[in-house]
Amino acid sequence: MSEGRNTCPRLYMNQFESSISAKSSYAQHLHSYEESRMTKAEDKTNSRYTNQIQFWLSCLGYAVGYGNIWRFPYMLYKNGGGVFLVPYAICVVIIVLPLSYLEISYGQIFRRAIHRYYDLIHPRLIGLSFGISSIIFFIAVYYMCLVAWCFTFLLYSFQDPLPWAPKEGESAHEALTSDGYFVKEFLGKSKSMFDIESYNPMIMVSFTVVSLITYFTVYKGLDTAKYVVYLTVPLPYFLLTVLFFKGITLDGFTLGWTYLFKPDWSKLFTFGIWGDAASQVLFSSGLAQNTIVTIAAHRNDRDPMFWSTVLIPIMNFSTSIFASLALFSFIGYASYSSGIPVGELPVRGMDLTFVAYPALINSLPFPQIWSIMFFIMLTTLGLSCQYMFLQCISQLIIGTLNRTKSIRINPKIITICVALVMFIVDIGLFSSSAGYYWVEYVDQYATGINLVLFLFFQLATLVYILPLSKLAKRVSRFGEKFPKMYYFPLRIICPGFALVLAISAIWH
Q1: Which of 258, 323, 278 is nearest to 496 (CA)?
Q2: Mean pLDDT of the 26-34 span
Q3: pTM over 0.85, yes/no
Q4: Which residues pair with 199 in a beta bridge?
Q5: Span 217-229, mean pLDDT?
Q6: CA separation, residue 122 to residues 12, 80, 506, 507 (Å)
């Protein structure tokens, strides 16, 4: 095994190809595959999902997040309402479905730790793993901040009256559109991102609690996380369903739906709507971050690939639509009760979550109950993503150190160190009065264009350098055929989309 670790990956592949033809049974093939593809250390840590439901829940928990709740509705009404669904659905078919199949099949067949996704193809490509993992780190600290803010609002939801309740003499219009409580009282927003005037002790407590929950879920590995998803993934759907049925009983809920889906067909033939649809479908699906590959690496060899890659994107798309209906029914009610046009209400990003919804929830009977449900939903959505972020970063460091024979560190210590570094960054920046600026900075500069660029590099590596035909051969040995309809999108459409989107982002 020690000699195999120093063998050129391409030579390894050729040896593997020749060994398969000499063995007839699936058991012999699998034994040869495990010996030639995995080190003993990797095999020990590579736990398996017990059933398909655990895998689907893990993928949904990672893919379905804040982008489905607050970014998709904004993109929908910004780009012509219901017209936006046309390019979005097309992008799901020609981009997400092929990419999902590519990542899931690659992870399930090669079953490598994150640090060896690309050096298996060529040793010099290991930098891609480190580059993508650095992006995951920034996303993780950014997401941890949002989870901690939601958790803090959850704790405040037990107060009567709610802290963000309208002040005496404040009108409904001011309560729904003013960010006074969130910006001035909750965050204590400073004048600039480098002007740190104070820290919010309650947010610091929330960071501590959320970090501990994430760590203790991850440190035992998949054996714990695969059961945690039974709670963290269905719970937001249950709460979202309750909010949906509550929303359709409110007066004026159709105002929100009408504004959300009213089509503006003139935008269908503009470049902006297609660019927004492509970027939204990419970011909400969780692709190009190696995390789906990591999840798929824990599947069993004979688990079906095709239907998993179809079911998960469809459920992700459906969740975005369902969340938009549920949440914009409350927006319609707010417009009806306050007399404010829907277009004048804050319906984007953090303003939607921490300004508009708390204000309109306060106008409902028993506001504490609805506030608790809403922020439990957001907290669990964020935690489901955070588990995978921490696992990927820890796995990269553990695998890299294990390749150095002179260094052997307990994986649990590595996980603690990663979680501690993330915690220190979050406490130092995002719990301060400058936290609002840092969240916007990371959201705008540290993720978007970088993810698109790494998507292009990923496609170039797996489709052309591997190449795709060699991956298709291995798929056939696992009882499936690589769908022919995915060849053209993976070779032409997806790389072209990534390149055009990256150039457009750089240009602007």
Answers
A1: 278
A2: 37
A3: no
A4: 432
A5: 75
A6: 11, 45, 29, 32
